[in-house]
Amino acid sequence: MASPRGLSISFFILHLFTFLLDPSNSVRTSFIKLPGSEGSSSAAATYCKSWRLAAETNNAGTWDVIPSTCVDSVSEYLNGEQFLSDYNVIADYALAFAKTVELSGDGKDVWIFDIDETLLTNIDYYKAHGYGSVPYDSNSFNEWVVQGTAPAFDASLRLYKALKKLGFTIILLTGRDEDQRSCTERNLRVAGYSGWERLLLRGPEDQGKSATNYKSEQRGKLIKQGFKIHGNSGDQWSDLLGFAVADRSFKVPNPMYYIP
Ligand SMILES: [Mg+2]
């Protein structure tokens, strides 16, 4: 027969287990690590990688801001080696295609580049604005554009120079407004770009048009003028889709914003 001391130890152990196994007891999780509890951040990281892929492939369709749970994941990607590696690989594919193009030599063989997040990186601006987790503010972004301090992507500059050397005519097609022409040209030159044939910006008649429509119309005009659009590089699907599309389009990554 158990002694009174043995009985009280048994009761204590029983009470302890009852306490620990009671799901209503929130204190329990503070000192017992459940197997799944460490998986939540890993699950978020996995989800955010899937979200980025969905955004890049346009499976996500139109979106306003990045999911709040993905700010760290997007920041890590943008500031790590992967982002720059992705640009490099895309530049390599673009250049490999460009080398297969038979140029006519009449100056009409065109490669189109978008500017923001394609030739120039605005990551310093977006770093100070939540990496796309806060709604776009045109006033503050335009203040940044006027400064003209956005650096080039090394891979894009490499591709740009190589295309020029091959004999392509470079046309820049941007959603920036006509009144930002001089600061845009200055920024491009400081970043290392030169020798473009045209810089096409949104005029008064283009205000209110979707980027897809505006850029398609501009490409359509070029084709009417006899240009052949072999390649097109942009960070938005609206740089590349629509009508009068290039023979090959090259989408560089942008997990920070979506322009329809
Ligand atoms: Mg862009």
TrEMBL record:
<comment type="function">
    <text>May function as somatic storage protein during early seedling development.</text>
</comment>
<keyword id="KW-0732">Signal</keyword>
<dbReference type="InterPro" id="IPR036412">
    <property type="entry name" value="HAD-like_sf"/>
</dbReference>
<dbReference type="InterPro" id="IPR014403">
    <property type="entry name" value="APS1/VSP"/>
</dbReference>
<protein>
    <submittedName>
        <fullName>Acid phosphatase 1</fullName>
    </submittedName>
</protein>
<dbReference type="InterPro" id="IPR005519">
    <property type="entry name" value="Acid_phosphat_B-like"/>
</dbReference>
<keyword id="KW-0758">Storage protein</keyword>
<dbReference type="InterPro" id="IPR010028">
    <property type="entry name" value="Acid_phosphatase_pln"/>
</dbReference>
<dbReference type="InterPro" id="IPR023214">
    <property type="entry name" value="HAD_sf"/>
</dbReference>
<feature type="signal peptide">
    <location>
        <begin position="1"/>
        <end position="26"/>
    </location>
</feature>
<comment type="similarity">
    <text>Belongs to the APS1/VSP family.</text>
</comment>
<keyword id="KW-0325">Glycoprotein</keyword>
<dbReference type="Pfam" id="PF03767">
    <property type="entry name" value="Acid_phosphat_B"/>
</dbReference>
<dbReference type="GO" id="GO:0045735">
    <property type="term" value="F:nutrient reservoir activity"/>
</dbReference>
